[in-house]
Amino acid sequence: MEIFRSHVLICAGTGCTSSRSDNVAKAFERLIKEEGLEREVKVVRTGCFGLCEVGPIVIIYPEGAFYSRVDEKDVEEIVKEHLVKGRIVKRLLYEETLEKDNIKSLNQVDFYKKQMRVALRNCGVIDPENIDEYIAMDGYKAIQKVLTEMTPEKVIEEVKKSGLRGRGGAGFPTGMKWQFAYNSKDDKKYVCCNADEGDPGAFMDRSVLEGDPHSVLEAMAIAGYAIGSDQGYIYVRAEYPIAVKRLQIAINQAREYGLLGENILGTGFSFDIDLKIGAGAFVCGEETALLNSIEGKRGEPRPRPPFPAVKGLWQKPTILNNVETYANICQIIIKGGDWFGSIGTERSKGTKVFALGGKINNTGLVEIPMGTTVRDVIYEIGGGCPNGKAFKAVQTGGPSGGCIPAELIDTPIEYDTLVQIGSMMGSGGMIVMDEDNCMVDIARFFLDFTCDESCGKCTPCREGTRRMLEILEKITEGKGEEGDIDKLESLAKNIKASALCALGQTSPNPILSTLRYFRHEYEAHIIDKKCPAGVCTALLQYVIDEDKCKGCGICAKNCPANCISGKAKTPYVIDQDKCIKCGTCQEKCPFGAITRR
Amino acid sequence: MKTIQELEEIRNRTLEKISIRKERQGTRVVVGMATCGIAAGARPVLLSFVEEVNKRKLQDVLVSQTGCIGVCEYEPIVEVYRPGEEKVTYVRMTPEKVGKIVAEHVVNGKAVTEYTIGSIDK
Question: Does residue A62 belong to the interface with chain B, where contact is any CB pair within 8 Å?
Answer without folding.
Answer: yes
